[in-house]
Every structure is written in C-alpha cells, then in structure tokens.
Amino acid sequence: SCEWQKGLLTKMVSLAKEFPFLDKARKSELLEKVFFGIKGVDLQDLPSHVYQLLVLASKGFCKREVIGGVVGFFGSKAETRVASVLRQIEGTVLLHVNFAVKQDPSLGQEVVALVKSDLGAFNHFTVAVLFSVARVRKFGENSLGILRTALLTAYNDYRLSKDCKWLPDELKEESFQHVKLVEKSLLRAVSECRYGREHVVPSVIQFGFMLLESVEEGRSNELSDSNGVLGIEKLSIKILGTLFEVHDMTRNEIIEQCKFR
C-alpha cells in the first residue's frame, strides 16, 4: 500500500500492458494507485502519463476506469494547479484522447457511456472531451447528442422541481445546483477553446446551432429565471457569442451559418 514515487508512476502504467494475466481486482488496485499518485505528477509530464494510460486502456485494461479516472482528475482534482499552464496541458491531453479514440473507437464508446451513466461525471473537462471525441466521424452526432440530452434533462428536472408543490426544498436546490453546474461547465469548456484546443471548435459551433434548432423546434420548454439559470436559448447564444469573441477564425463560419437560418 506504499505510495509510488512520481517517476515510477508512468513506468508502471507503461509496464502494466505487458501483464495481461492480471485479474480485474489487481488491475483496479493498480489504477487506484495510479490515480492517487497522479496528483503529484509534474504538470509537463501529465500528457505523456495520460497517453500511457490511454494506450493501456486500448489494450482492454479497465477502459471505463481509465476514462473515468482521467476525466475525474482533470475535471476536479487538477484544479489546484497553475490555471494558465493547466489549460494548455488539458489541450494536449484532449488531442491524445482524440487520437486514441480514432485508433480505438471503443474508447469513444466508454466516454459516451460514462456521461450517460454518471451525471456526477459531468464537468468542464467532460464537456471538452465530448467536443473532442465529436471530431471523430463515428462519434460526432452521438457525443453532441449526449451533451444536448444532459442539458435538456437538467433543464427539465429543474423546471419540474421548481413547479412541484410537494417536493422537498433540498431536492429543489439539488436540481437547481445541477442545472447551474451543467451551464457553467459548458460555458467554461467553450471559453477555454482558445488554449491549444482548436480542434474542438467545429464541434462547439455545431453544438451551439444544434441548441438553437432545439429552440426553433419548440423542444426546449424555454426557461430563464431570476435565479440566474440562462435557459437553452440564452445559453446557445452565449456559447456562439463566446466563441465569436475568443476565436477570430470562427467569426466568418458563425456569420455564414446565421445567414442560412
């Protein structure tokens, strides 16, 4: 149960793929140590560490746990690091994820399944990963569809809980906090597009217009209230507006798409 030194961590991940005979319990134990120790890995070493983990996962080594661990780490535990450097590191990690999914589409399925099965896994990095995976042709519609479903579900739950007379206040507060988290995560992922993650920009544009179409189709059950919940129409406009501001190269594309709607 001793803690591994950070230099040993990546080596152990790299070596683990040479031990296919490990049973599931041993694999889980190894990953637990790896994700416990990752907090101490130097920032510049994180991308190569994640790359080794993705290679390991592609060999069939606890794929869901690897994906969940990576998303969980960058979604919350990494927040204590220097923000500006971390954003650049995350950009590199997203490229690694994108490449890994192209090589092994089953990893993309794990990303999608993770978000489907665990709403607690929803954070700005999950959103960024889904935007990145959406660039892989096979997962384009599925990844963005999962994001839209998560958002619409959060809005729907919030609206229902707000209007429900008999629901306890703590449950109402829970649905309010969740919808705020989903909105905040989406907007943060969009605003961070400028940090070495240009490859996700087309996904963000597509998603922004996808949300606007939901409004046009009347499927959004629009809500916007004094509690600061934006609602789908304002959120979609804010997503496209943020992208317009932070990414010069998107402006013509956004303007052109607006013309044809």
TrEMBL record:
Protein name: Fanconi anemia group I protein
One of the Pfam families matching this protein, by short name: FANCI_HD1
GO BP of this protein: DNA repair
Record-annotated FANCI helical domain positions: 106-186
Domain FANCI solenoid: 2-102, 200-261
PANTHER family for the chain: BC025462 PROTEIN, FANCONI ANEMIA GROUP I PROTEIN
A GO molecular-function descriptor: DNA polymerase binding
